[in-house]
Design goal:
Protein name: Inner membrane component of binding-protein-dependent transport system
Subcellular location: Cell inner membrane; Cell membrane
GO molecular function, one term: transmembrane transporter activity
Order of helices and strands: HHHHHHHHH
Strand content: under 5%
CATH superfamily: MetI-like
Largest sheet: none
Family: Belongs to the binding-protein-dependent transport system permease family. HisMQ subfamily.
Distance between the termini: 63 Å
CATH architecture: Orthogonal Bundle
Organism: Bordetella petrii (strain ATCC BAA-461 / DSM 12804 / CCUG 43448 / CIP 107267 / Se-1111R)
Shape: elongated
């Protein structure tokens, strides 16, 4: 009688899952870097005093947030190449993850920026500081630290959304487990290992975010 969970088989498939895990982590890290940078740019543009700038950005953010990530991946992978812009499946997936979560990060940034006391802006104006110096030296150092936990939640959420990359032929962690299962007709071990790996890395990411939040508070991030 075969055991429900075969440890020998689990160790045998672990290297293959590890290779796929590298792709999953790569997509998550690069996608999140794109999301936090692009999200900040979108948040600043949405708060621009010129309506011809802020209005289109607001429409773009709401459009991205209101459409499924999978649809956006399909569009970038199947439709965008028809215009001549061709990327690898992994690069397309990273772009889709980054743009999708940038829209959410933009709203988080906007909430942090709007929570900065108005007196800070008035003081910067009284000191004749330029808008750029006011944003970089006064607003952002106070606005970003409080929203780090929310950004950390999106990091974990993005990590758990990486299985969608299999829809555009990226062999990430879950897809690799399905390939192993279809080849060996054993799904218990690969799927169990995938669940444990997702859990472990999610906990590590959450711990890292808490450490970053504590570091920002230690060095004057809180107000």
């Amino acid at each position: 009688m075969n055991p429900i969970f075969d440890w020998a088989f689990a160790w045998e498939i672990l290297p293959a899952l590890g290779s796929a895990l590298v792709i999953t982590v790569q997509a998550t890290v690069l996608g999140m870097l794109l999301a936090v940078v692009l999200g900040l740019v979108l948040a600043m543009l949405r708060r621009a005093p010129m309506r011809w700038v802020s209005a289109p950005v607001a429409v773009l953010i709401e459009f991205v947030r209101s459409t499924p990530l999978l649809v956006q991946m399909y569009f970038l992978f199947y439709v965008l190449p028809q215009s001549g812009a061709r990327m690898s499946p992994l690069a397309t997936g990273i772009l889709a993850l980054g743009v999708h979560y940038a829209a959410y990060c933009a709203e988080v940034y906007r909430a942090g920026i709007e929570s900065v006391p108005r007196g800070q802006l008035e003081a910067a104006t009284a000191l004749n500081m330029s808008p750029w110096r006011t944003a970089v030296g006064v607003v952002l150092p106070q606005a970003i630290p409080p929203v780090v936990p929310a950004l950390g939640n999106y990091l974990v959420a993005m990590f758990k959304d990486t299985p969608l990359l299999s829809a555009i032929t990226v062999v990430e962690l879950l897809q690799q487990s399905k390939i192993i299962g279809s080849a060996t007709f054993r799904y218990t071990e690969p799927l169990t290992l995938v669940g444990l790996l997702f859990l472990l890395l999610s906990l590590i990411a959450a711990w890292g975010v808490r450490r970053l939040e504590a570091w920002l508070k230690k060095f004057g991030g809180s107000r």
